[in-house]
Amino acid sequence: MNVEMQLDNAWTPAYSVASGDPPGSLSNNSPGGRDMYIFGVDPLVNEGYIARFDKGEGTQASSAQLVASAGYIAIARLGIGESHELAVVTDISGDPRHIRFTYTADN
Q1: Which of 1, 37, 67, 95 has the highest CB neighbour number within 10 Å of its CB?
Q2: Could you give the dihedral angle defined by the CA atoms of residues 61, 20, 52 and 47, in that order, rounded to the nearest 10 degrees?
Q3: What is the pTM (predicted TM-score) of this model?
Q4: Which residues have a Cβ under 8 Å from the Cβ of 53 and sit 6 or more positions away?
Q5: What is the mean pLDDT of residues 71-84?
Q6: For the chain, what percent of residues have pLDDT higher than 70?
Q7: In sequence order, what DSSP letters do the residues of 17-66 get, joined into one string?
Q8: 58 and 34 in contact (C-beta within 8 Å)?
Q9: Is 68 helix (H, G, I), strand (E, B) or coil?
């Protein structure tokens, strides 16, 4: 799963998760609270996935994130070549960011 961020009207690589890697995570700070997303590759069905934790808590220390959750809500399942975009406000930047997730055969 390739993750890109839109900067200056161009998509810039930000992160990559391959089959067998632990899932990646991304936070979204909104007026209603903080959402935590998880994304990765499901090798059993050869798909990428994006999900939002339901009723969870998350904290970040340095480059590590710890998340406790009561479950998750599926956002997207991606076949090879498919993409999904999210708009988020991360912990790192207070500005909204457009993020694109693309599942490729290389992942």
Answers
A1: 1
A2: 160
A3: 0.81
A4: 35, 36, 37, 38, 67, 69, 71, 72, 73
A5: 93
A6: 83
A7: --TTSPPEEEEEEETTEEEEEEEEEETTTTEEEEEEESS-EEEEETTEEE
A8: yes
A9: strand
- Looking at this protein, which amino acid is placed at residue 14? A
With tokens 């209603």, the residue in question is: 32
Are the C-beta atoms of 80 and 104 separated by less than 8 Å?
yes
Q: What is the DSSP letter of 91?
A: S
Distance from C-alpha of 107 to C-alpha of 104, rounded to nearest angstrom: 6
Q: Is 77 exposed, middle or buried (0-12, 13-18, 19+ CB in 10 A)?
A: middle
CB 25 within 8 A of CB 36: yes
Specify the residue for token string 């590759």.
41
Long-range contacts of 19-24 (CB under 8 A, 24+ apart): 19/43, 19/107
45: alpha, beta or left, given left = phi > 0 and alpha = psi -120 to 50? Answer: alpha
